[in-house]
């Protein structure tokens, strides 16, 4: 009897909400299926790759021991810092370093940051747009292609969430 009463209440709520055609189970999960993944928190860099237009591997961004941290707040603020984490570099090599911050939006597949402070004003003059995909618990950010020594390069940065709370 209790089950029938609960079912009737849910049906009445569905009708009132204009979702009477959805099965009961779908009403409970309908909103969840469309929700964007939660990017809020602190993420650490765990891998980076670079490939040319033919898919050939290029030099690893930020060296073989890349270090990075990204924090994204619930109110739309972000900060990213990345560098080559090796204690010393081969002679003649330049240490890669990048940092920026700003207000961001995330629509579930694209992270866009309006940069308001950065380490390289020439490089961060436009909004920073990153395609985003998730593989399990990891977030992969894909910036637009860049040209390096005449070769178009696509980078992918893989991040692991280390805290659900932002800095």
Overall body shape: globular
- Distance from N terminus to C terminus (CA atoms, Å) equals 50 Å
In CATH, what is the class of the largest domain?
A: Mainly Beta
* CATH topology category name of the largest domain: Lipocalin
DSSP E strands, number:
9
Helical segment count: 2
Order of strands across the main sheet = 1-2-3-4-5-6-7-9
Q: List unreliable stretches of 5+ residues.
A: 9-32
Report the C-alpha radius of gyration, rounded.
Answer: 22 Å
What structural keywords apply?
Lipocalin; alpha+beta; 167 residues; 2 domains; 8-stranded antiparallel barrel
Structure overview:
With 167 residues, this protein is an alpha+beta fold. It has two helices and nine strands, in the order ααβββββββββ. Helix content is 16%, strand content 45%. It has two domains: 2-34, no CATH class; 41-163, Lipocalin (Beta Barrel), CATH 2.40.128.280. It has an eight-stranded antiparallel barrel with strand order 1-2-3-4-5-6-7-9. It has helices at residues 2-17, 24-34; strands spanning 41-52, 66-72, 77-84, 97-106, 110-118, 128-135, 138-142, 146-148, 151-163.
């Amino acid at each position: 009897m209790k089950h029938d009463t609960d079912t009737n209440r849910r049906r009445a709520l569905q009708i009132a909400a204009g979702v009477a055609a959805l099965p009961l189970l779908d009403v409970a999960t309908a909103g969840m299926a469309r929700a964007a993944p939660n990017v809020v928190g602190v993420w650490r860099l765990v891998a980076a790759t670079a490939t040319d237009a033919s898919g050939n591997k290029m030099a690893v961004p930020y060296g073989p021991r890349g270090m990075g941290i990204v924090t994204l707040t619930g109110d739309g603020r972000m900060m990213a810092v990345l560098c080559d984490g090796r204690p010393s570099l081969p002679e003649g090599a330049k240490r890669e370093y990048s940092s920026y911050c700003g207000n961001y939006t995330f629509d579930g597949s694209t992270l866009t940051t309006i940069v308001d402070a950065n380490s390289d004003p020439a490089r961060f003059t436009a909004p920073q747009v990153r395609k985003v995909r998730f593989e399990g618990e990891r977030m992969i950010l894909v910036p637009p292609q860049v040209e390096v020594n005449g070769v178009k390069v696509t980078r992918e940065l893989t991040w692991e969430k280390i805290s659900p709370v932002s800095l």
